[in-house]
Design brief:
It is a single chain. It is globular and about 60 Å long. It is 38% helix and 18% strand. The termini are far apart. It is an alpha/beta fold and 346 residues long.
Length: 346
């Protein structure tokens, strides 16, 4: 009997009527940065709904991953790219590696976040990059917590701050842009020279700074770190013991933060454009958007998404972030990074 049914399947496949059962699941590949996260159940639901397997390639910081995508554009490594932010937006668009897609979900995204009129890159989330500090450390020492960038160069703050290298870190670059926007092109470098003289520590990336040197989250001895406005909420959410409030706080006074917007785009050369579009729609829709705050601790771009209470209670955004257009950033980014490297690392 088993042999009979095997023969029936073989005959059906030969005539092309029942081979679907033998087909392999289509694989959709997403390039992204190391900090990308999504609930497994949510992703599994998308895969089941569309009969697809989604594979994520995490290849370092957002800037490094973008470089890989550009270098491999003649033979794309993925179908979709998530993680280009507004610090690299102009570079990403000028590379020509993305194709336009006007998702119907864009109607729920505020115009202020939609920086590409051709919709090659669509906004998924945003967050303020800002100083975070260890509340307990400052309370024990009897020193006032920082409120402005200028505080960091005061004598009482010597040796307290850890930052990320803007050449290798997305938040590091965002903080460098904060200083350019706040102090101007004629004053930002003077600030950094004074900060170096005040014993600032510069490390390669966020993980090293936050989990290796920040006193509130590691055995490090630096109570001030460049991180995100959402980081205090993460401290509460991931705490082993229930907390009534976060042990850390973010500095969100005017012109102390840079608003980072992250985008998703379909890579030119994808073999699955329709599935890629469905994945983009999925990332802009409410279920994914409402998963963002407690996965990546930034704000969803979709204005209809609801925020979890722990995020609302422990996260605030700045009233006035530093503003630099993608064009300004593209024109000045490399020279600002080079000047920073000379002033801080050499």
């Amino acid at each position: 009997m088993k042999l009979f049914w095997r023969l029936i399947i073989l005959i059906a496949c030969f005539f092309g009527t029942a081979c679907f059962a033998q087909d392999k699941t289509v694989e959709l590949t997403v390039m992204t940065h190391d900090s990308f996260s999504i609930s497994k159940a949510l992703m599994a639901g998308f895969e089941k709904a569309h009969g697809v397997s989604v594979r994520f390639i995490k290849a370092g910081d957002a800037g490094a991953v973008l470089n890989q995508a550009i270098l491999s554009k003649s033979n794309p490594m993925a179908d979709v790219f998530f993680g280009v932010d507004n610090t690299f937006l102009s570079r990403a668009l000028s590379s020509g590696i993305f194709i336009p897609y006007s998702s119907p979900l864009l109607s729920a995204i505020p115009n202020a976040l939609r920086l590409d009129p051709e919709n090659r890159l669509l906004p998924v989330d945003f967050g303020d990059v800002c100083l975070n500090y260890d509340k307990n450390w400052f309370s024990r020492k009897g020193i006032a917590a920082p409120e402005r960038l200028e505080d960091l160069i005061k004598p009482e703050y010597a040796g307290l701050t850890v930052v990320e290298n803007p050449a290798t870190s997305s938040p590091g670059l965002a903080f460098l842009l904060t200083t350019v926007g706040h102090f101007g092109e004629t004053g930002y470098l003077d600030f950094w020279k004074k900060l170096k003289a005040n014993d600032v520590l510069a490390v390669d990336g966020w993980k090293q700074a936050y989990w290796g040197n920040f006193s509130a989250s590691s055995k490090g001895n630096r109570p001030i770190v460049v991180s995100y406005a959402g980081s205090p909420a993460a401290e509460v959410w991931y705490s082993k013991n229930p907390l009534s409030q976060s042990p850390t706080a973010a500095v969100t006074t005017d012109e102390t933060c840079f608003r980072q917007i992250e985008f998703v785009g379909i890579l030119k050369g994808t073999k699955h454009p329709e599935l890629a579009q469905k994945l983009v729609d999925f990332m802009l829709d409410k279920p994914f958007q409402e998963d963002i705050p407690l996965q990546m601790f930034v704000f969803p771009a979709n204005s209809t998404a609801k925020l979890p209470e722990v995020f609302v209670q422990n996260t605030q955004t700045t009233r006035r972030a530093v503003e630099l257009s993608p064009q300004q950033i593209d024109a000045g980014r490399e020279k600002w990074i080079d000047a920073w490297t000379d002033a801080v690392l050499r």
